[in-house]
Amino acid sequence: MSATEEDVYFSTNPPPRNLDAHVEQARSFIDAHAAAGRRVVLLTSGGTTVPLERQTVRFIDNFSAGTRGATSAEYFLEAGYAVIFLHREFSLVPYARHYSHATTGSFLDFLEADGRGGVRPRSDVRDKMSMVLAAYRRARDENLLLTIPFVTIGDYLHELRAISRLMAPLGPRGLLYLAAAVSDFFVPPDRMAEHKIQSTDAVKHRKKNSTTSSSSNNNNNNNNNNNNNNNNNNNNKNKEVNDASGSGNDNGNESGDSTTSSSRSISKEEEVFDNFDATSAARSKSLVIDLDPVPKFLKTLVDGWAPEGMIASYKLETDPSILVHKARHSLARYQHHLVIGNLLATRKWEVVFVSPGREDRWLRVPKRRGEWSDDEVRSLQAGEVPREEPLMELEALIIPAVRDLHDAHIQQNQQKTA
Ligand code: PAZ
């Protein structure tokens, strides 16, 4: 990507509100750890959103609860890294993840009354909770964990660029570990509606019939006309967009793009209903959204933003037959250091490490009893989910393996500069 393309993207897509504050936090975090000779990982986690309106009511989301990222962060801390955790707001975060997002019940279920008017952890979870709390407190008290949130694809890219550029003082001791699920497509600002996209012509109808329209009504109508114009543009292009293509993302991750979009209805501009009532909704048309591709920033990241650090990206696919091919393709295209491939269905059981000059390496959680047979390995690689729950967290294997590759990266750099 040319510098101009990068400049255009970043000058036309506004930065997140707290970018300057985040940059200052990250700068002092990185400088402190660089001075202490510690390794720092910038870890991305969770999914980015693609807003459809400036005052956002609707957005397209990417699949990811942030489990991989939050779990990896804990193992990186255990492995001696300081961690900048760039994550989707309200997705899983290290340590709290053990209690925060229960699918049944609530975190309050982990507590019980202590009989003296207070509360304490339930006796069956107390031991684990005190270990988790101790690890969390150590990370917090020793300033080893900095958490920075993002929501949209634009926020994510601005934050990633700004923070990775600060990693220079770390030299090869910096690591980028890109596990976030990043959108491949977005609505550019000049085509984005200001207000909530309307699903009926009720507002236009009000405009048509209003005898005394206030200035605020006019504003509303204008804005809604804008929306309709936007949508007309989209309809004119008559292009169906499916953002779940697995086409590879490469924006600070190797997205197999896990974006989903939900369909909404909007009336065609030329349809003006004589009477607005419930039937107008039934007569409304589907909304066609025209998205632009997000520029591919991974090469820029490798060459310009964090040139000395090691860069590891994830590649998510759902089709087993293309996973390794796509991982290799991305490595060849972006010339970074490691792609970790995983399939949606089996991502908690196995991943494949694809790195230059090395054999592909599959990491798999051990079986409860015995070894994986060849047939079982073939089933896993074909995306079949085993019946049993994984025996352990796969990140307990992934992070030490990443650390080994990072050791080699640091050594190579030392030899080059010796
Ligand atoms: O958050 P999670 O643990 O459910 O999922 C993790 C993941 C599959 C999003 C991650 O491992 C990954 O592959 N990230 C890159 C996603 C992508 O290629 O878009």
Automatic annotation (TrEMBL):
User: What would be one Gene Ontology cellular-component term for the protein?
Assistant: nucleus
GO terms for biological process? acetyl-CoA biosynthetic process from pantothenate; coenzyme A biosynthetic process
Q: InterPro entries this protein is in?
A: CoaB-like_sf
Q: Name one GO molecular function term.
A: phosphopantothenate--cysteine ligase activity
Where does the source fall among the domains of life?
Answer: Eukaryota
Bias (Low complexity) ranges: 210-236, 243-265
Is Ubl conjugation there in the keyword field? no
What does the UniProt keyword field contain? Ligase
SUPFAM superfamilies linked: CoaB-like (SSF102645)
* Membrane spanning residue stretches: none
The record's region (Disordered) falls at 196-268
- Tell me what this protein is called: Phosphopantothenate--cysteine ligase-like protein
Q: Tell me which species this is from.
A: Hapsidospora chrysogenum (strain ATCC 11550 / CBS 779.69 / DSM 880 / IAM 14645 / JCM 23072 / IMI 49137)
State the organism's lineage.
Eukaryota, Fungi, Dikarya, Ascomycota, Pezizomycotina
